[in-house]
Amino acid sequence: MRFGDGGVCLVSAVPEQGFTVSTSQSAAETLTVTFSASRHRSEITATTEPRSQASVREVSF
Fold first, then answer.
1. The dihedral sign for the CA sequence 23, 27, 29, 30
2. What are the phi and psi torsion angles at 50 (to 5°)?
3. Cis status of the peptide bond prior to 50, with omega within 30 of 0
4. In what helix (H) or strand (E) does residue 48 lie, and over which residues does it extend?
5. Which residues have a Cβ under 8 Å from the Cβ of 12 and sit 6 or more positions away?
6. Distant-in-sequence, close-in-space partners of 11: CB < 8 Å, separation ≥ 6
7. Calpha distance 52→46 (Å, rounded)
8. How many angstroms separate the CA atoms of 49 and 59, rounded?
């Protein structure tokens, strides 16, 4: 992910074997990249509002 004046954009997302990757961008300021497998999901959400930051959420089931 790259943070810039116009928001955040995806540079690259390469999943490991057994995972798929998807993205969603509700606005230029917020981007979520999700890596999914049969028993695990990792979500990385980056935003520029109110400041540039990223958070990671891991779920195993």
1. negative
2. -80, -10
3. yes
4. none
5. none
6. 1, 2
7. 7
8. 25
What pLDDT digit, counting tens, does each position of 2-44 carry? 999 889 999 999 999 999 999 999 899 999 999 999 999 999 9
Contact 19, 13 (CB under 8 A): no
Query: Given the DSSP bridges, would you call strands 20-27 and 30-36 parallel, antiparallel or unpaired?
Result: antiparallel
The dihedral over CA atoms of 29, 13, 15, 32, expressed in degrees to the nearest 10, equals: 0
Tell the residue number behind the tokens 């993205």, with chain if given: 23
Q: Output the pLDDT for position 5.
A: 87
Distance in angstroms (rounded) separating the CA atoms of residues 53 and 8: 10
Q: Which of 31, 38, 32 is nearest to 61 (CA)?
A: 38
